[in-house]
Amino acid sequence: MQIGANSLLQEMKSLSGEIPTGSITPQITQQVRSTSGSDFGELLSQAVTSVGELQANSGELSSRLDMGDTRVTLSDTVIAREKASVAFEATVQVRNKLVEAYKEIMSMPV
């Protein structure tokens, strides 16, 4: 299945109106909005850093819950783990698409 860049961009724009504003943290939303002048490598680096922070936060909450910290609830820990998991899976999918695109470009005749 081939997906063109223009059709994908149009679909993303149409879907962006369906996302509730409270579901994305303001910091991440601000990062995405302010990347118009950034290069792709910098944007990718920020995304990987963000995933790392989510995983670190998840690990910290899990450790605190295991140690018996009463300020940390099980639901907060599970939600943090799921956020980290989803972010990691999305990063892996982006990486896979980049590798696929690179292989396709490298196999093109010159």
UniProtKB/TrEMBL annotation:
<keyword id="KW-0966">Cell projection</keyword>
<feature type="compositionally biased region" description="Polar residues">
    <location>
        <begin position="22"/>
        <end position="36"/>
    </location>
</feature>
<keyword id="KW-0969">Cilium</keyword>
<dbReference type="Pfam" id="PF02049">
    <property type="entry name" value="FliE"/>
</dbReference>
<protein>
    <recommendedName>
        <fullName>Flagellar hook-basal body complex protein FliE</fullName>
    </recommendedName>
</protein>
<dbReference type="InterPro" id="IPR001624">
    <property type="entry name" value="FliE"/>
</dbReference>
<dbReference type="GO" id="GO:0003774">
    <property type="term" value="F:cytoskeletal motor activity"/>
</dbReference>
<dbReference type="GO" id="GO:0009425">
    <property type="term" value="C:bacterial-type flagellum basal body"/>
</dbReference>
<feature type="region of interest" description="Disordered">
    <location>
        <begin position="17"/>
        <end position="36"/>
    </location>
</feature>
<dbReference type="GO" id="GO:0005198">
    <property type="term" value="F:structural molecule activity"/>
</dbReference>
<keyword id="KW-0282">Flagellum</keyword>
<comment type="similarity">
    <text>Belongs to the FliE family.</text>
</comment>
<keyword id="KW-0975">Bacterial flagellum</keyword>
<dbReference type="GO" id="GO:0071973">
    <property type="term" value="P:bacterial-type flagellum-dependent cell motility"/>
</dbReference>
